[in-house]
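Render this sequence as a predicted structure.
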Amino acid sequence: MAQAHKVLGQSNPAATTLTTLYTVPAATQAVVSTVTVCNTASSATTYRVAVRVAGASIATSQYLAYDAALPANDTATLTLGVTLAATDVISVYAASANVAFAAFGVEIT
């Protein structure tokens, strides 16, 4: 089994829009070690992070963070170790368009 340590995804979604940060490719597993959430604005905001198994529709049970506070010009680092199967999706959302998300980890094929 080959392992590729990499940036799994980066996104700066539109405000109040659920957006795909990363989808595990077919015939692949992934371990997400860290998700960073960076507020580039001078005002506080909130964010959400969810894992949608097999790309299922969003549901409350899928959230890892929901309307978590993010101070102005600050970064939240979520050290997770989340294991994902093929077609699982990490989705992100922010109340402001000034939030950048990044996921880091390893893909296993």
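Summary. The longest strand covers residues 29-39. The chain is about 0% helix and 60% strand.
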